[in-house]
Structure formats: structure tokens, C-alpha cells
Amino acid sequence: MVPPDRLTSEGAALLVVDVQEKLVHRLRFGPLVIANSHRLVVAARVLQIPVFATEQYPKGLGPTIDSLAELIPERPAKTTFHCAGAPGLLASLADANVRHVTLVGIEAHVCVLQTALELLKLGFRVQIPADAVASRARMDWEFALRRLEHSGVTVTTSEAVLFEWTERSDHPEFKAISALVKDFVPPSPA
Q: What is the residue-level pLDDT of the chain in tens, covering all 190 positions?
């Protein structure tokens, strides 16, 4: 078996899936998903990795939480569970020459899972940091990650993504990324 290429910043994108007010507050690990999503967005900006976000039916589920909305002003609304149905998203990925997508957000077993499967079908490589996705029920989260890994998604952690994007300690932005790791204090579950 030939090992897959590392998922570095080259050809990368970050997609924040539906981290919305009415959804995130129902999750036991919502604060952790928010914190890890936030530091991945900050890191992506530092490393000049394109960042995208979506909102699932915001009229009913509310907008993206403020701390992420401030960083990602464009967040197309969708009614499909997978993000490929969000207006303009696939064209934006193509325009940015994206080959692999890191997904964060909620819920792991619905919109994140369906987005990952759709992106795989379209030829993208996909990775998901397990500590940056959640579901209301632990069993849904766990089995979503199992199914995703079995389908070819790289399941990893937020910290692993940060260092894989950076690649080396002499990277010009290594200190900024390293600070995101050293200064990170995981929030307690709600």
C-alpha cells in the first residue's frame, strides 16, 4: 500500500460547516468545537489557506456564532445537508485550486459526514480533526468518524492539522502556529 501524501498547506482549504447559534449550544463539546475551529481558521489565515463556511437554513437555526462570523464574512446558506449544495462553494474551491479540504463543524453525523462523502466523490481528499467536530450524541459522533475513516477520510486532531499545514520548524510562520498550540487551553464541556 502506498501511503497518501501529507495534507500540507499546498492545495489546502478549510471549510467550517454550520457552526450556528441554535446548533452549537445543544452540544456537550460545543465549546471545544468552537475553540478548535477558531484556532484552525486563524492558522489558515496566517498560512494563506482559503477558508470557507456554510450555514444550514440560518432562518431557522440562526447565524454562525459571532467569533467565527467575524473571521469568515461570506457564509452561503444551504438547505442540502452536504455543503456542495451551498451556492458558489464548489466554484470557489476550483478557483483556489483546492485539492484537499479540512472540515470542521457540526453535526458530525449529518452535514459534516455528507459533505465529506460528497467531496470524496468529487475527487477531493478530506481530513477531519475529531476534536473540531461534534454531534449531540456521542454515539452519532463516534460512528460518523468510523464511517468517514472507512470511506477514506483522514481522521486526525486539530493540533496535527496545524503542524501538517506548517510542515517544518523553519517555516516563516512556525512561531505563530506554535503559539496557537502552546497558548491553547481547551474549554471544559458545557
A: 445 678 999 999 999 999 998 988 888 889 999 999 999 999 999 999 999 999 999 999 999 999 999 999 999 999 999 999 999 999 999 999 999 999 999 999 999 999 999 999 999 999 999 999 999 999 999 999 999 999 999 999 999 999 999 999 999 999 999 999 999 988 876 5
Name the residue range of residue 155's domain.
12-181
Distance CA 95, CA 181 (A): 30
DSSP annotation of 110: I
Report the number of distinct structural domains present in the chain: 1
Burial 144-168 (b: 16+ CB within 10 A, else e): bbeebeeeebbbbebbebbbbbbee
Task: Round to whole Å and give the CA distance between 180 and 130.
Answer: 18
* Position 1 in a domain: no
